[in-house]
Write a structure and sequence with these properties.
Blueprint lengths: L7 H21 L3 H51 L7
Helix pairs in contact: 1-2
Amino acid sequence: MKERHIDAASVLTIIVTLLLFGVALFAKGFTHDLLLEAGVFLVSAKLVLSGYRSSLTSATMLKRLTAIEASLSRIEQLSARTGSPPPAA
């Protein structure tokens, strides 16, 4: 199963922002107000990209924590078998 990092809300935000930017472009033309609309678009894009990056970081952290948990379980099992504490590193 392929993991999706961009959720439905982010896709909807991108689509609505692009539509509104397009409508503003045709309604207002190339005027000073277009810069304001472009700024709103860039802020929305930045939020979506930030969410994507956060999702990737969370997935990486989860994999690393799972590996640490597996290592600790193996150490506990070895310690229980031998009856002695594991050597200090």
